[in-house]
Structures are given as structure tokens and as C-alpha cells.
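User: Please predict the structure of the protein below. I'd like the answer in C-alpha cell form so I can feed it into my own downstream comparison script.

Assistant: Understood. Taking the following sequence of 189 residues as input:
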Amino acid sequence: MVRAGLTTERVVRAGAELADEAGFENVTPSELARRFDVKVASLYSHVKNAHDLRTKIALLALDELADRAAAALAGRAGKDALVAFADVYRDYAREHPGRYAATRFRLDPETAAASAGPRHAEMMRAILRGYAVSGPDETHAVRLLGSVFHGYVDLEAHGGFDHSSPSSQESWNRILTVLDTVLRDWPAP
């Protein structure tokens, strides 16, 4: 029997909160069961197993991040859009480190295709239209942007820039200016 008040959405949101507190890798059905003061079996009406729970958290995080990015991009183009999009990723990672880690969780192809992941790529492609990057080069540019955003955020989150000057913020601003320059002067194939 399903415990009153326990829903899939509630379980997933609690899992996302746990991820932010303890790290995405530490999210387990048994830990969530302790938080809800229920037996682990009670959760299995809502999630199949730990992998399913992590998948659902990843989907939630991708949706949240896509919604924030879409709102930030509205009415912007060029460098303004690039900076707004990049800042959404960085800010989300700072506010929700476990959820951000969940956005990197490997999804099976069918789940990935139905997730908000493609929205992220489409928003990056929309930014690129302001730079006249098109065709196969769009894919290269999307991969470049994703690599820079995720790589920088990951290094920063793990303290990679804590012990040197200039500040991480100064480097972030400079990197976004350099990306803008690269995208404006994207070489022909």
C-alpha cells in the first residue's frame, strides 16, 4: 500500500534536495526512505530502483535548467544571449550542485531524446544563429560551448580556481568574451 502523501513527484524532489545536500552519487532509495520515515519498499511504488530514481532526478534537473535558460534568453541575441545562457548554467550549478551533477547523468538514448536535453542544444543553436554559425559547424560550436560551460563549472565547483589570481569571476568574464570573439570569427570549413 502506498503511504499517504508519498507521490513520485515528492520522492523525486526529495531526491533532488538530497543530491544538493549530500551529492548526487549519494542519492539512494534507502536514504530517501529514512528521510520519509518509511520502508524502502514503500518507495518502489514510485521509483523502480536507484538508477530509476537518479534518472528521474536528472530529468527534473534538465527541465529546471532548460526553463531557466529559456527565460534568460528571451529577447537576447549575440554576446548578451551567450553570457545569459552561460550564467544560467554556472548559477544553477552553484545553487544546486547535486542537481547540476544529475544533468550529466548518462541517460539511455530514448530517455535522452524525450528529455529537456534537446531543448538545451536547440537554445545553443539559437544563440549561434546570432553569429551566423550554421550547418555542420553548429554541432562543433554547440560542443565547444558545452565543453567550456560544463568544464569550467566543474573545475570551479571542485575548487580548481580557489588558490590563484585573478578571480574566478574575472576569468569567467574573459572566457565568455573570448568565446564571443571566436563565434563572431568562426572559420569557414
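That's the full C-alpha cell string. The mean pLDDT is 94.
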